From TrEMBL:
InterPro entries: DNA_mismatch_repair_MutS (IPR005748), DNA_mismatch_repair_MutS-lik_N (IPR007695), DNA_mismatch_repair_MutS/MSH (IPR017261), DNA_mismatch_repair_MutS_C (IPR000432), DNA_mismatch_repair_MutS_clamp (IPR007861), DNA_mismatch_repair_MutS_core (IPR007696), DNA_mismatch_repair_MutS_N (IPR016151), DNA_mismatch_repair_MutS_sf (IPR036187). The keyword ATP-binding applies. It comes from Aquirufa regiilacus. This is DNA mismatch repair protein MutS. ATP binds at G627, P628, N629, M630, A631, G632, K633, S634. CDD domains: ABC_MutS1. NCBIfam families: mutS1, PRK05399.1. Belongs to the DNA mismatch repair MutS family. Gene3D superfamilies: 1.10.1420.10, DNA repair protein MutS, domain I, MutS, connector domain, P-loop containing nucleotide triphosphate hydrolases. HAMAP family: MutS (MF_00096). The gene is mutS. Residues 701-717 form the DNA mismatch repair proteins mutS family domain. SUPFAM superfamilies: DNA repair protein MutS, domain I, DNA repair protein MutS, domain II, DNA repair protein MutS, domain III, P-loop containing nucleoside triphosphate hydrolases. This protein is involved in the repair of mismatches in DNA. It is possible that it carries out the mismatch recognition step. This protein has a weak ATPase activity.
């Protein structure tokens, strides 16, 4: 048997070096990650990693000349890590940083190495990877096959925020779309389910099935939080949420994130507290991101925050509007209060501005990653607190007072940092220059020694020149001999006997003296001591700061809340928004409402035309909006939903007045979809989204349907649209308030039989053969589409436009279109509602009802849905 080496390893294989063996052993522990392997002053990558890294980073790929074809190599200097690491991570790579764990000069044999951090898109403290206005979440999804339930958890390690929840697919999809995690962990076993429902939009990482077990994850959480159970967090009854959360903690350990004390709590995402926005709505309304290139999401307009914490909290408030009247009114009162006392608001803004990212700074303290410069910033942030407290202590708005009151100035810590740290403290911890003069007498003496030492040497040089007459005498320093005296050969004979010769050069001799050596020791050891002592003091400050973790986290939340309210007030003031009246009734009344984003983007000189909208459950439940292309139908639909949602976020709204009965769900089927790349047809997407709406309606829902049925043949389209409108009107349990924009004028006939459906149109004026868009919503249906006019405006060839006119006239002459309307009028009425009260249901309809009843749209694949639709049509 081959003999083992002294460190217990097998002997090297052929072609193996100690270094390559060490590399292979470490690499094997981090599959799927690029390994940055520290060798001397470089981080090196090898093999496949090198190929990837060189492509992403644009660094040179070299091939090592040992006959091995795969032996690629690419590297960069270690000090460029901050430049290159974020690029790799943003490209979706997981990166294991392998450092030298001992001083190479002291190493016996090969230097010990190990991975000190595995940086992934979702788990990062790196300021270059993070966007300070957004949370950077890693999410995890667990799944229970027997009842198709999902668990989900989100963690932002840079702020310590940790949340979980569980529910059916649609709920989890919505949460994922709301929080937009940078990375999703899921069980390997359910890869196909994950792929189908969450797709390739997110960076993801599949993990072994056994990790996703309750028995494994529950203790991880209780151990982390040092609690007996999870009751205090309100998640005890969420086994799938617990699993998802525990998986994230496991992942942190796997990625070498071991100092995570700042993850001090876990919150349950309470489904009942927030307005249900399905994932289509978050996308369609462009709340926090835009699907169009160059499109402006609402958040860009709403975000006037002064701190990164504020910006992040705003994003959360925007995707999670409230349902509870008192909570909304409390926020509103804060905004109103700020607007009433203009000057106070200006002062508050100036106090918030210098605070910076207090939340991430305290997280860095907990993770042991804060540098001296950042600790100074933490102190500066806390120094703003007393003035904010004082400013708002007597403010009439209770929410402002409440948050200001909760802020804690952490005076003792501030004083401590103030007295110890230099204002210009550096980013590096080991090079001194951190601690103020006067903080520690011992340190001051050492500093003096080190600076004065150099003066002393100069004086010594001068003195010795005078004493010996050696005019060429120089005191100098090198690493090998330390300080020495140098004498050119011409003056060699004047050297006193007590000097000790150390080195002979061609033209000179070098000597040391007792005195010189003594001093050298003092200077060098002073510098060493300075950096050791300073590092020690800094460490102590970090440790003390950590004791303030909870207080500072609470401060961060308070400051963020004040910041978001101030941002709401700023936006309201700048854009002339009003405070909406919210109530628990059934009506929504908006006067002179505007679209918050479009009104900002109109060309100079154009004004946005405001419109009134009224909806309720008794008289005007469904508004059927017709009007030519380009008239402003979509804008009207979206602005109505945006106004309602902004109101429930606590913000003021773009209108002259608004009285809003609280909405619990908002659904939209608006505009083109971006799912086409997934191979789904426009119509299929449209039907999937509409089905999701119809299956989840509530009495306080607000539904926006834009041009339903557009994606198929006219007859199919009109029929579907007609049936959907009927369904919404006649629903047995709820009267969802609906805005329905359509090109099918045939749908205007619905009002004859359905009392709560009302016709409106967006008006235009015909002048000669031109149309002028008046954009006013007026009662009554409209006759024409003016589609050909719009085509003309878009620059279609004149001959083509004339021909289209001709065809249209012919069709109208032959009454083809009017016939349709007549047919619809004569159609047997939908007796669905009557049936509910007892009449016989035809056999075919019964079958359809049964089939629909047993259908879970959330688990249908697009193709299955299409087949089902076909089958139902056949039954009909
Ligand atoms: N109230 C308004 N005041 C001023 N401009 C408006 C107004 N509403 C819409 N617009 C402008 O008109 C453009 C077209 O509006 P919108 O997309 O809502 O029309 P539409 O009726 O839905 O058209 P289509 O039927 O072709 O989809 C918008 O991009 C906007 O610039």
């Amino acid at each position: 048997m081959a003999k083992k080496t002294p460190d217990g390893q097998e002997p090297l294989k052929k072609g193996e070096t100690p270094l390559s063996r060490q590399f292979n052993q470490i690499k094997a522990k981090y599959p799927g990650a690029i390994l940055l392997f520290r060798v001397g002053d470089f981080y090196e990558t090898f093999g496949e990693d090198a190929v990837k890294a060189s492509k992403i980073l644009g660094i040179t790929l070299t091939r090592r000349n040992n006959g091995n074809a795969d032996d690629h190599l690419a590297g960069f200097p270690h000090h460029s890590l901050d430049t290159y690491l974020p690029k790799l991570v943003r490209a979706g790579q997981r990166v294991a940083i392998c450092d030298q764990l001992e001083n190479p000069a002291e190493a016996k044999g090969i230097v010990k190495r190990g991975v000190t951090e595995l940086v992934t898109p979702g788990v990062s403290f790196n300021d270059q990877v993070l966007d300070n206005k957004r949370n950077n979440y890693v999410a995890s999804i667990s799944y229970q096959e027997k009842d198709a339930q999902f668990g989900v958890a989100f963690l932002d390690i840079s702020t310590g925020e940790f949340m979980c929840s569980q529910g059916p697919l649609a709920y989890v999809q919505k949460l994922i779309q709301s929080f937009m995690p940078s990375e999703i962990l899921f069980p390997k076993k359910y890869r196909s389910i994950y792929q189908e429902h969450f797709g390739d939009q997110y960076h993801s990482f599949s993990m072994e099935e056994w990790i996703f077990s309750y028995e494994f994850t529950y203790p991880l959480l209780t151990e982390h939080f040092k609690t007996k159970n999870l009751k205090g967090f309100g998640i005890e009854t969420m086994p799938l949420g617990i699993i998802a959360a525990g998986v994230i903690l496991h992942y942190l350990a796997e990625t070498e994130h071991k100092q995570v004390g700042h993850i001090a709590t876990i919150q349950r995402i309470e489904e009942d507290k927030f307005v249900w926005l399905d994932r289509f709505t978050i996308r369609n309304l462009e709340l926090v991101y835009s699907v169009q290139e160059g499109g402006v999401p609402l958040i860009d307009l709403m975000d006037q925050t002064m701190t990164p914490m504020g910006a992040r909290l705003l994003r959360k408030w925007m995707v999670l509007p409230l349902k509870e009247l008192a909570a909304i009114q409390e926020r509103q009162a804060g905004v109103a209060g700020l607007l009433e006392l203009d000057e106070t608001m200006d002062v508050l803004i100036s106090l918030l501005k210098p605070i910076g990212d207090l939340e991430r700074l305290i997280s860095k303290v907990a993770a042991g990653r804060i540098n001296p410069r950042e600790l100074v910033q933490l102190k500066r942030a806390l120094q703003q607190v007393p003035a904010i407290k004082e400013l708002l202590a007597t403010h009439p708005a209770p929410i402002l007072q409440k948050w200001a009151d909760q802020l804690n100035p952490c005076l003792h810590l501030v004083q401590k940092i103030e007295s110890a740290l230099r204002d210009d403290a550096p980013m590096l911890v080991h090079q001194g220059g951190i601690i103020k003069t006067g903080y520690l007498p011992e340190l001051d003496e050492l500093h003096q020694l080190s600076t004065n030492g150099k003066d002393y040497l100069a004086a010594m040089q001068k003195r010795e020149i005078e004493r010996t007459g050696i005019t060429s005498l120089k005191v100098a320093y090198n690493k090998v001999f330390g300080y020495y005296l140098e004498v050119t050969n011409a003056h060699k004979d004047r050297v006193p006997p007590e000097w000790i010769r150390k080195q002979t050069l061609v033209n000179a001799e070098r000597y040391i003296t007792e005195e010189l050596k003594g001093y050298e020791e003092k200077i060098l050891s002073a510098e060493d001591k300075i950096s050791t002592i300073e590092f020690g003091i800094f460490q102590e400050l970090v440790r003390e700061s950590l004791e303030y973790l909870e207080l500072i986290q609470l401060n961060a939340l308070g400051i963020a809340t004040l910041d978001v309210l101030t941002s709401f007030a700023q936006v309201a003031k700048r854009n002339q928004y009003v405070q909406p009246t919210l109530h628990t009734g059934d009506s929504i009344q908006i006067e002179a409402g505007r679209h918050p984003v479009i009104e900002q983007q109109l060309p100079l000189g154009e004004v946005y035309v405001p419109n009134d909208v009224y909806l309720d459950n008794e008289t005007q439940q469904i508004i059927m909006i017709t009007g030519p292309n380009m008239a402003g139908k979509s804008a009207l639909l979206r602005q109505t939903a945006l106004i309602v949602l902004m109101a429930q976020m606590g913000s003021f709204v773009p209108a002259t007045s608004a009285s809003i009965g609280l909405v619990d769900k908002v659904f939209t089927r608006v505009g083109a979809s971006d799912n086409l790349s997934k191979g789904e047809s426009t119509f299929m997407v449209e039907m999937t989204e509409t089905a999701a709406i119809l299956n989840n309606l509530s009495n306080n829902s607000l539904v926006l349907l834009d041009e339903i049925g557009r994606g198929t043949s006219t007859y199919d389209g009109v029929s579907m649209a007609w049936a959907i409108a009927e369904h919404l009107h006649n629903h047995s349990k709820c009267r969802a308030k609906t805005l329905f924009a359509t090109h099918y004028h045939e749908l205007n006939e619905l009002t004859e039989d359905f009392p709560r459906i009302k016709n409106f149109h967006v008006s235009v004026k015909e002048v000669g053969n031109k149309i002028i868009f008046l954009r006013k919503l007026v009662p009554g249906g409209s006759e024409h589409s003016f589609g050909i006019h719009v085509a003309q405006m878009a620059g279609m060839p004149t001959s083509l436009v004339l021909r289209a006119h001709e065809i249209l006239q012919n069709l109208e002459k032959d009454h083809v279109l009017e016939d349709n309307v007549e047919k619809l009028k004569d159609m047997p009425k939908n007796n669905y509602q009557l049936n509910l009260f007892g009449a016989e249901i035809p056999e075919g309809l019964k079958k359809i009802e049964e089939q629909l009843g047993s259908l879970d749209v959330n688990t249908l694949s697009p193709i299955e849905a299409l087949l089902k639709l076909n089958e139902l049509k056949r039954l009909l």
